[in-house]
User: What shape does this take?
Amino acid sequence: MTKKGSDAIIERFRSITENTHEYAKSLQGKGRLLAGYMCTHVPEEILYAAGITPVRILSAHESQAMTRSYIHETYCSFSHDCAYQGLQKNYDYLDLIVHSSSCIHMAEAFNVWVRFAGFQHKSFLITYPHIIHTKHASGIMVESYGEFKRFIEEFVKKPITDEDIERAIKVYNHTRRLLKRLWEYLRHDHSPITGSEVAAVTLAAQVMEKQECNQLLELLIERLEAEPGKEPSGVRLMVTGGACDDLRIFDLIENLNYNTNLIFMDSCTAARYFWFEVPEDRPDKFEAIAEGYISRIPCPAKDNVPGTGEKKRFRFIRQFIEDYKPDGVVFLYQRFCSPQSMDIVALKPIIDMLGIPWTELELDTTVPITQFGTQLEALVEIIKRVAP
Amino acid sequence: MSYTLKAWKDFKNYQTTRYRNYAYASEGLRCMGSTWSVLAPLKGLGDDVYILGGEPHAASTAGTFPEEAREDISAAEIAGLGFHSCSYLKLFVGEVIRDKMGITDGTIKEGYPRPDLIWTTHLCNLHSKWYQEVSRRLGGVPLYPIDMIGGGDAEKDPKIVKYVCDQMEEGIDWLQRVTGREFSDESFIKAARNEIKVLVLWGNICALNMRAPAPLDERRLIALFPPAMVDRTTDEAVRLYEALFDEVKNMVATGQSVVPYQRFRIVYFGLAHTYGHPEIARILRDAGAEIVASVYTFGTAGNFRGFVNGKWSWEPIDPAWVDELDLSSRREALSALAKIVLGWPTWQGVRSYWALEQMARAMVAEFNADGLLLAPTRTCETDFRNGYIAMQRIFKNEIPTVEYDTETVDVRKMDIPGSKRKTELFVHLMEAHKKRGR
Assistant: This one.
């Protein structure tokens, strides 16, 4: 049966997440240059301004042992999997690989690509602050963006103008606004789109050509506006944690033996990717980009306010809880991701204080469906007893 | 005959006195943080500033009180800290949770001494997050983390040096605000010169191990660099390292060593596991195999010539260079400090595989090594496992190389039988290599 309405569009987004290479190669077939990126601190706008499509490197969730002889086993499975994609030559079609000083784990994955996967002469590492809230972070970001721009100009053999960058900023901001509108549906009961569908769309946006992505998002929102809510309201679960590009976990959360709704995902593969905007029409484009990226929901590895030691991400999480009203919280993070576990230890008392039950799931290469299912159902049972 | 170091006792006393001063100070300022930070700005606040550094304190607590260390780690895990997190961090936070502090003289102070402020570094993923947790548990201690975008020749990148200097300059204003004290540039500059001098002197002492026999072994190196970590800003620290430098120079001149039998010379990348697990050190010693160069003991609080024309060198910096440094203003002193700290060898490889590889290559050549021992630490988030696995791929066909996981502080994570077997294999590899005439 042919799917109609929003389902067909959601299907398209999902199919892009499942066939990233096919999709990216089709762009290349249309003459686009492609740059892979491994961390969302890479200012995609600068690549886009040069006519390059940024494509996020995603993992494949295959069991493998190959990367154990390149990266220490106590690095997260996401970094191992991304390194594996390089070693397997799955992304050989990329014209470039770009990274910004990130968490150590993803930096190692990038190193493997550069060192052992044939990207030595087509790679760039952007110097980027490790603490995003220092007063001087913007200054060094602006300088680094300048170096990056010069590299890209040499690569594409043409200058990148301020107009090019402004255009890119606007295209990307449009994507961010559209994604936010989509996520807005999850705030309310009887959403016309499910949380796992939103997760798939958000993930697809990270590999898509942004104009195409925007057109599809506009169409999706238009259709959703005309559709009734598709799901009965159930227990509202919010996810907070680290990178997770395995959509099966989000499907699982919404397919338990209880009626549940996934209503928010705070991670760099979901909300942290787009929950900010770059100021438009500023005279200094790099200052604008820096300001925008600094205003993001911080990555736990970079989150420490000098003077107080505050974790700014917690402010966002409190706000999301207030806006999205979860009944339960799922801490979902990559095994061995130490910054996450250091945040969770401080976050739990806050969630406890708010009277919200939580559970903790540690991700590895594959998802232990039964085990996670049991844990999640136990959480729902706790909530059902707790909730009035 | 084995040489006995004269400076040994003074070094131990210096370290213990610093900890006692922090633990029992009835007035003055208690400052906590990674001592893998620039320390001199703290001394601009006065002479009554007592420093407790996370890494050296955790390491020495583990060495002095192994049972307590286990309890500390366990307490931290029960409180929710991750099983895979840095064991130094967990030990340190565990003391806060258990409300007691161990001191290297073997005493334990009941009642954790709350710091007045935290002044620290953010380099690896956990560096400043460590102190966020301490601050939280102690009810919100003011915390100033400095972002060190270290690695890969960073000290020669003007934008990074400026970024670090700007943060420190801002940090000095913050120090004045949170303490209500006036900052003395004179005291700061004096402390800055001392800090740089100690780092350079330690580099000189380590570089003497290029000679055969190497005057110092890993066990002595590990025990001799903590004063430079604990507090390297004092006149006393400079005097200690000047005296040690003279003593070790004399050892070289007279062909003496703390371990004269050195059949094999080892270059070591790891975090002192032979110190934490003496049974492994014994395997090496029985075979006449000595660690003569190690990135941890050399490069955590020591400076060398580093990258010159794109090539790393472990040759020392002339100590006289420090005396001639222009530190006439606050900014000059901050800039000199930023450059020296960003030039620490242990930071070079944090995010730059090429720097790590070059340092290893230079160490093998300059210290005339027979083998390369790679010992990534299981819970070290960054500095002592990052890039190590890939290094084995690169060096295994060039020099006898083994790699195995280690853990110095959290004994649960150390595979002793496996590590012993690999250490024996390493000795056999070096032996076979030597027999083949290298």
